[in-house]
Amino acid sequence: MEKEYVEEFMTGYEFLVALFEREPSDDENGAEEQEIGQKKEAEDEKEELAADQLEIILLGEILDNKNQVIEELEQEREKHKEERHAWEKEKTSLEDNIRIIKGMFETFTGKSLQWQEERSQLHAQLDAARDSLQRYQELMHHCDHYNYY
């Protein structure tokens, strides 16, 4: 009753708006909605399929890029491993050379001390020989002086 009362006082524009907003009959509504629903579902499925395919392609490209990066990193790791091995070998060689040089230095230091000691002894012997020579020369001078006169 209330609906009829409202419809009596509607303007033409309000009537048209109400007509388009009204609920269609069950027959009209069911067939159209079913057809629209099927079309919409088909379009949605196509869009989802296209989106899934695009996502798969993008994920494949990302995976390929990551695999390439992993391969490059593995190659770089191998290169660094080889360089490290070479450096360790060189380090060992240098440490051996340092030990040899230290040994030589210690030997030369010992020899130097020995030579300094021998030099000191030779200087002492030389000084003693000079003193002996000087005494001999003095004695010879005295002998010559006494024999000569």
TrEMBL record:
Protein name: Transmembrane emp24 domain-containing protein
UniProt feature, compositional bias: Acidic residues: 24-35
Keywords: Membrane, Transmembrane
Keyword Membrane: yes
Superkingdom classification of source: Eukaryota
Region (Disordered): 21-47
